[in-house]
Structure formats: C-alpha cells, structure tokens
Write a structure and sequence with these properties.
- The chain is an alpha+beta fold.
- The protein is 23% helix and 33% strand.
- Strands 2, 4, 5, 6, 8, 11, 12 and 13 form an 8-stranded mixed sheet that branches. Strands 1-3-7 form a 3-stranded antiparallel sheet, with no helix packed on it. It has a two-stranded antiparallel ribbon with strand order 9-10.
- It is globular and about 55 Å long.
C-alpha cells in the first residue's frame, strides 16, 4: 500500500512540475521582488504594485526587436536591443474590440537568456528600476475605469479584474494557424495570456484621484527610462 501511495504521489508531483514548467506564472506584490515580496493578486488602487514573470522558455523567445527610433534613444545599444511587450485589458472588455496600449519593458541581453524577470507595475518613487518606454499606468490607471455621475457630481469605481498578455510571435499575413486556448490573435500577432490582477477602485471619490495616480506612475517610469537614454 505504501508503495502504491508513493507511486501516486511521485506521479502527481511529476505532473505538477511538468505543468508549472510549461505554464507562464505571473506574480504580483506590493513590494519589490528584490526584497521580501508578499504575493497577492488583489490591490487597493493607489498602492505600489510589482511583478515577477516566469515563462516556459527563455525570455528571448518572447522578446521583440526595438524599432530604430527607440534603439536610437538608448545609450548602451549592445546591451538593450529587445523588449517584452505586454498587453492588459479588463476582463469585462473584449481585447479585440478596443484601443489598447503596449507596455514595452526593455530587457538586457543577459536577462533574455533566463526564464524569469522582475519588474515594476505601479512603482513607488523610491523603489522603481524597470526600463519601460510605456508602463502599465497606461491601462491600470485610466480615467475611463471610473464612472462619473454629473447629476450627483460624484465618481465611483469597482473592483476591476485585468487580464495580462505577453507578445509571443507574429503570424505571416494569410497564414491559417490554430491559436492555443490561452492565447489571442490581434492583427496577425499572437499574445499569450500570463495572469490576472484585481484592483479595487471602490474607494475612489473623484476621477482626478486616479488620473493623478496615472500621472505619478508615468513620471516615475519615465524618470527611470531617462537613466538608460543618451544624454
């Protein structure tokens, strides 16, 4: 009996390990993953958020070349040549039926060889280090997430779940490819679903509060990017 139980447990462990190795894992924390993270997928708006992504294949498999304009802005051109492109969309919206922004995380050649990367999502000014051309503020702190009632002069938000995707590959125009269940295709580009995050906007009293969160995070993100650019 003990041998049977051990055999079952071994196979269960093997299956779980195999599944985890072939499935993207996206984690979030209110503190940087370089410290002592407190993993969660639920946050109050206005609080810092950091992420850690582990992919089945090396990150270079999901990276895309920077265009000539972006490359021209970077001081260390041999070190930073590619970016991981993320897309975020509220789960209540059809990602194929909306205008979306690409969150472009620039990663080093060395980081691309690994399967894991930690990065800022909505960072605090004292703990920001990720090099983004466009940060997650573009989707996670949009004013349209808040409803304004002109008759009452009040604003209100909800607990909003966001789906996260990462660029996986381009499809040649005209090619007929089957897309996996956890992926989407937009304009002949495949994005892999990597995780979810919920932000609670129910305590918002004025849409300008969220707009300020957006502007603050953008300023922080851009201040980090300036350190990597030509002077």
């Amino acid at each position: 009996m003990c041998k049977i139980i051990s055999f079952i447990l071994f196979n269960l462990f093997f299956c779980v390990s195999l599944f985890s190795q072939n499935t993207p894992m996206l984690q979030f924390s209110p503190v940087s993953f370089s410290g002592q993270p407190k993993v969660s997928d639920y946050f109050e708006w206005g609080t810092p958020i950091y992420g850690k992504l582990t992919m089945p294949k090396p990150l270079k498999s999901y990276a895309k070349d920077l265009d000539n304009y972006d490359t021209g802005q970077i001081a260390e051109k041999d070190k930073y040549k590619k970016a991981l492109n993320f897309m975020v969309c509220p789960s209540t919206e059809d990602v194929n039926d909306r205008t979306y922004a690409l969150m472009q995380l620039v990663v080093s050649q060395q980081e691309l060889e690994g399967r894991t990367v930690s990065f800022d999502v909505m960072p605090s000014p004292e703990n920001a280090s990720s090099f983004f051309f466009t940060g997650f503020y573009a989707e996670l702190a949009k004013s349209k997430l808040i409803t304004y009632d002109p008759s009452e002069g009040t604003s209100s938000g909800t607990k909003t779940e966001f789906n996260f995707y990462i660029y996986e590959r381009d499809i040649p125009y005209g090619a007929d490819e089957t897309i996996a269940r956890d992926a989407i295709k937009i304009a002949n580009t495949v994005y892999r679903h990597i995780g979810k995050l919920t932000i609670d906007f129910t305590t918002v009293k004025d849409v300008r509060e969220v707009m300020q969160w957006h502007d603050d995070s953008r300023a922080i993100t851009e201040s980090v990017a300036e350190k990597f650019k030509t002077k």
